[in-house]
Amino acid sequence: MKIPPLFILLILTILCTFHCGSQDETYTDEIIGGVRHVHNLSPAWGDELRVGLELYAPSAQRRCH
Question: H helices of 1-65, where?
Fold first, then answer.
């Protein structure tokens, strides 16, 4: 018995929708003077950092002539 790919895609879409809809919200938002303000309640991924910022400063040896 072969399961059609469209049926598998439909099932995955339904499961993903229920999973994403059941997650706790980590922010609240409000409109003040026509501007949307977002207030973070907690980190989206817990205490573990998932994104980092690394600044690059070109070395003094690389000079444009």
Answer: 5-21
Over residues 6-32, the pLDDT tens digits come to: 999 999 998 888 777 656 677 888 999
* Residue 28: DSSP 8-state: E
Dihedral sign, CA of 38, 41, 45, 49?
A: positive
Name the token pair of 30: 């409000």
Q: Is residue 25 part of a domain?
A: yes
**How many domains does the chain fold into?**
1
Whether the CB-CB separation of 25 and 41 falls below 8 Å is answered with yes
- CA 54 to CA 65: how far, in whole Å? 27
Residue 33 lies in a domain: yes
Q: Is residue 24 assigned to a domain?
A: yes
